[in-house]
Design brief:
The protein is an alpha+beta fold and about 210 residues long. Helix content is about 35%, strand content about 15%. It contains 6 helices and 7 strands. It has a 7-stranded mixed beta sheet, with helices on both faces. It is globular, with a radius of gyration of 17 Å. The relative contact order is 0.15.
Length: about 210
C-alpha cells in the first residue's frame, strides 16, 4: 500500500471514529492531511457525501489552489480554509473541522476553555472566530489568526477546527477538547465553578510544550 493510500485509509478511519461519537454529521465536518511526499498535494474529505460510509477512493486529492486532481470528485466546501492553514503553518500536517456539540455551544455563547486539567491546558487560549460564510476569505483569515494562540479555534455558529502534527494528534485533540467542555458543563450543572490548575503549573506545562 502506498503512502497516499495509507493516508486515505487513515482519514476514513478518523471520520468513522468522529461520526460514531456524533462529532461529524452525515454531511457536516471535514478532515484533511498534507501529503508530505509531494510538494503540492493534500487529501480532503468530499463535499455533500454521507460521512458515515466513506471509502478511501472517496477522498479527494487537491493542489494548494484547491483544484481536484480528479475531475469528477468535489472537495469539501471548506477546502480553502484547510489550505490557508497549511500555507500559514508549514509544520501542520492535519486539519479537522467537526461539529462537536458542546464546543459548538461554547462558541455560540462566546465562552472560554478553563485550565481544569492537563487535557485542558493546550486549549486555554482558544479564540472564537466570528461567523463567516463557509470557505470565505474572512473565515480563512480568522482561523489562521486564531491558531496563533491555540491548536483549536471555535467557529461561531459553525463548530470546531483543530490542527495537529499528525492526523492522529488532531483527532485526539478534537476528542479531548470536547471532553474538557463536557466536564466544565457538568460542574456548572452541579451549581459550582470548576477548580483550575495553579498558574505555576500552567506555566510549567507551557515550558515543556504541553500547553
Amino acid at each position: 500500500m502506498s503512502a497516499e493510500q495509507e493516508l486515505r485509509q487513515e482519514i476514513v478511519s478518523v471520520v468513522d471514529e468522529l461520526y460514531e461519537l456524533g462529532m461529524i454529521t452525515p454531511t457536516g465536518g471535514n478532515v484533511s492531511v498534507r501529503i508530505l511526499e509531494e510538494d503540492d498535494a493534500f487529501l480532503i474529505t468530499p463535499t455533500m457525501l454521507y460521512k458515515g460510509g466513506l471509502k478511501p477512493e472517496d477522498i479527494v486529492k487537491v493542489n494548494r489552489k484547491g483544484r481536484s486532481y480528479e475531475r469528477r470528485k468535489r472537495p469539501s466546501i471548506e477546502t480553502k480554509v484547510h489550505l490557508a492553514v497549511y500555507e500559514a503553518y508549514p509544520d501542520i500536517e492535519a486539519v479537522i473541522h467537526s461539529h462537536a456539540k458542546l464546543c459548538t455551544a461554547l462558541g455560540l455563547i462566546s465562552g472560554s476553555i478553563l485550565p481544569i486539567s492537563m487535557d485542558a491546558a493546550p486549549f486555554v487560549n482558544t479564540q472564537i472566530v466570528p461567523y463567516c460564510l463557509s470557505g470565505s476569505p474572512e473565515l480563512c483569515e480568522g482561523v489562521v489568526e486564531a491558531l496563533k494562540h491555540s491548536p483549536a479555534a471555535l467557529l461561531q455558529c459553525h463548530g470546531l477546527l483543530i490542527v495537529g502534527w499528525t492526523l492522529r494528534q488532531a483527532a485526539n485533540r478534537t476528542m479531548a477538547i470536547e471532553e474538557v467542555v463536557q466536564v466544565m458543563l457538568a460542574c456548572r450543572l452541579f451549581g459550582k465553578e470548576p477548580a483550575t490548575l495553579p498558574p505555576e503549573t500552567l506555566e510549567l506545562l507551557r515550558a515543556v510544550g504541553i500547553a
